[in-house]
Amino acid sequence: MERLSRLWNWILWMLFFLVGFYIVFTGGQRFWSGDLPDMIRSGKVSLQRVCQREFARCFYPGLFLEYAEGGDTSSLSGWYIERVMAMHPLCRLQYGAKQPGGTENASTYEMLVTGGVHDENELDETGREYDMEALAQAENEKAVEERLEEERRASEEAGEAAFAAEEPPAAVTAGMIYNMEELSDFDFLFGTFYSMDKTTTISPEDLNAEVLLSKDMSIDKEVEGPQILIYHTHSQEGFVDSVPGDNSTTIVGVGEYLAQLLREKGYDVMHVTSVYDLVDGRLDRNEAYSKAQKEISAILEANPGIQSVIDLHRDGVAEGTRLVTEIGGKTMARFMFFNGLSRTKKNGAIDYLYNPYIQDNLALTLQLKLMSEQYYPGLARNIYLRSLRYNLHLSDKALLIEVGAQTNTLQEMLNTMEPLSDILDKVFDP
Prior knowledge:
The structure is a single chain. The strands form five sheets. A seven-stranded mixed β-sheet has the order 3-14-11-15-8-4-5. Strands 1-2 form a two-stranded antiparallel ribbon. A two-stranded antiparallel sheet has the order 6-7. It has helices spanning about 1-30, 35-60, 60-70, 75-85, 90-95, 105-115, 130-140, 140-160, 180-185, 185-195, 210-215, 250-265, 290-300, 360-375, 410-430; strands at about 120-125, 130, 195, 230, 270, 280, 280-285, 310-315, 325, 330-335, 335-340, 345, 350, 385, 400-405. The chain starts with a helix and ends with a helix. By secondary structure, the protein is of the alpha/beta class. It folds into two domains: about 45-70 and about 75-95, no CATH class; about 105-430, no CATH class. β12 (about 345) and β13 (about 350) form a beta hairpin.
């Protein structure tokens, strides 16, 4: 019996020896032949498959059982993701979609590309100049028209609900009032009040509602001399019924009416009617902003009491498109506040277009937009953000305002100046 036991132990040791020798021999062969990386990769794949199976078993046991019955063990991850996405459609959207926010809707982009401030050399995502006309042609005109029609109907409904009197009142209580909890949500703030060009970007730190709304944007009316300056980088912008050669029927005339209304509210207003967009009698806007900057800077130096600088424009849209809403029985051209961020999406800050007042500019447009929504809902379009500077560095309370478009009438533009002056006054003299 003892002899049999020794024999059995000897056989087991021989088996262990042979198995061990085989393992060492085959592994050494692969190592010597240069197949070690393949061995490591195979091991990683095997480990990954084991982990996938265990994760599936742990988190979705029902799915794992379904998979184990007929699934292909080599494609667990793809099968698993597909099944989870089918169970959770919101996850599917997030999984397969680009990040939201940061690009403008088609209508806004088309409108801005075809007119208004978009006339000098613009920058693409790399900071290089690109052909604005080509970009405009690339836009989908049908989508633009549909979006604008939607905005028009919404604004008309809002206007009819908020205004019942024949004349627009000084203050309306039927508008939208937003609380700080809502405004502190970056996604809500950006999605509700802003549109942004594809060449630039903005962060939650830049659009901190609590910080922007805490900034004092008031104007001291006791300061001697002009307190507000209104000018027009594009003085030749006209309307559907403008009279050639008569500046009073162009954006210049609209600016004079705005100046008059603000004077009636107690401000000392300077209206500069200089021409920056004509060269040898022909329309040329390539250097309009540079020319305007030179003169306006000199005026500001000579008049230190000027606290706000307003560059008043009209937009450019496709023919047949009308940016209007009705308030108190009056048809008014809708307007838009504009911010230049001196920043491209690809290269970051544009050093040669430095603006120390970006936060102040953003604060002013947000405060004005909220005031407009409270008292004249539907009149102001989304604040538009773009990559260049547009002379907004000239003052902490610098404004670029796009009112209506070339398809509006002069009277519609003049009508808008009444609520616009009221909105400005509510922020400048709270």
